[in-house]
Amino acid sequence: MKLTIIIVNYNVQYFLEQALLSAQKAIQNIDAEIYVVDNNSSDNSVQLVRKKFPSVKLIANSDNPGFSKANNQAIRASNAEYILLLNPDTIVTEDTFEKCIQFMDQHPDIGGLGVKMIDGSGNFLPESKRGFPSPWVAFCKTFGLSKIFPKSRLFNRYHLGFLDKEETHEIDILAGAFMMVRRETLDKIGLLDETFFMYGEDIDWSYRIQLGGYKNYYFADTQIVHYKGESTKKGSLNYVKVFYNAMIIFAKKHFKGSSAKGFVWSLQLAIYFRAFLTLISNIFRKGFMPLLDAVLIVGGLVLIKDFWATHYYNDPGYYSTAFYYFNIPLYTFLWLSAVFFTGGYDDRFNIRRMTRGFVIGTILLAAVYGFLPLDLRPSRAIIAFGAIWALISTTTLRTAIHFFKYGNFNVGRNRIRNLIIVGSKMEAERALGLLQKAEIQKNYIGIVAPKETKNLTDFLGGQPQLEELVQIYKIDEILFCLKNVSAKNMMNWMVKLGNQIEYKTLSEDSQSIIGSSSKDTTGQLYTIETQFNIATQMARRNKRTFDLFLAILLLVFSPILLFFVQNKGGFLSNIFHVLSGKKSWVGYALLHEKGTQSEKLPKTRKGVLSSIDVLDIQDPPKETIRRINFWYAKDYALGKDLNIIWKGFFWIGNS
Fold first, then answer.
1. Do 407 and 259 reside in the same domain of the chain?
2. DSSP code for 314
3. Which of 338, 366, 575, 593 is the one with CA 20 to 30 A from 348?
4. Whole-prediction pTM value?
């Protein structure tokens, strides 16, 4: 066996499908095998591999043992001359493996090989070539010097920015997304160190390859698409902790004495510094719009108060100072909270959501107003005028931001993007059918033939004219049908046309269209499979917030409510289970006594109640339970939970 390809997968079913399809095309002329090691995915990844890729060797783990251990499972089971670790969110060209093997065959001193990687917009991924993370290199990366001086040999050794990405070079560190290693090298240096659960194992392996007397190379004569670049994870504090702790493990393993202590100390300092920067960045990124909105609303309320006091009551000092420290914060908080929970900040240019939030906030404010003491009820007119001001001012703010960012005033109206499809007429029609079933709106311009064509009735032109057609029709999005267009051609076009265009791919026989706007996004998916409302960010956030609010409310009034529930001890227990996050007030009905949720549905916390509990059904069959759970997840809304709790309150103490 010449080559063993190992793909470790965790909950990326659609990307995995595309990666396997491209890998299978690339091994047609090679004596090769493909392993998929699934780390207990909750999606249909395992079923996909078994059904659609019977020739692929599948290892389905019942838990998530981590990246290193999963790869080692397949490495031990193989005996090929070369081992390739490949990410599931990649596409390889048809000749990638052949070129890499040929290059390594010609250079027996090479132990490990990486390739040029681009993201879903055609941008070069700098992690394709990396230097050894010495204390100085780590310092420059941590404190941003490598970004300030990207071409510097002194300051950017982490990504080796001084090396030409179009030329093949000897490097220190291979990227875990594509690591081709010689079996002979593994026999000498050993497998991946399973101490590294995630991150750091590629650095450790690359370093041990060099210690074993071999070289690592960056190979520029082929390229792959890696949809999710490493920056997709850097927005979380958990990433900072896990990544730098992996570096500490590496330092303690390979360095001794004062050098190890200095390296570990610098990495620990880096953890706190990067965590601080990440926290500030997240606060600014997530809080920027709410903060601007709050400034506008507070300023408007002050002006409205002064105007109303002067012109209606003829007394500029009519309102007490309590208006500043109580009423203004209360009004602003309720309005912005309502906008937040209705998804107004998930999509900041969605005027409809924002308007709905202000309406709900005003209704809540009117309800709260009646319970306030008389001295804290200044005027309903201020609430009315304040709500109008809040809506107008925040809409104006978004319009201005939208104009400076996109050059138009179409805020709240998603412009339908101009789309062309590169492929045969049959595949293009299939792609259009998938878009239609997935309810994706595009301004479809036409088809570009895979080759030169004179048939301008069915096609806009041929692939050689693609750049010209993009300019003529002002194309925003290109969909490549990989049954007709080689992955190599697609990547060349992505690099040539640049990141101003969004690229999507449809693999042969696939029912999913995949793409990514940049390495900073986790990928975009158009699929005809069911989309579940309960899996959306807004639904998850609101469901958890509702759980906490209701738990606190029930706890406060528990002395009274205990008389209305069946199991009093269970009632209090459930309150604390919900507060701790172990349970939700409403969830799926369980399929059997062991507490298994319905398969293939988005995971949720175990529910105290379910839709079944409020239906007059005795011992429903499993198919009925599955169907009810399916519709609960698909059409989820907070009102469903409220209705179930209202009808089933008597049983809210059940375990």
1. yes
2. S
3. 366
4. 0.75
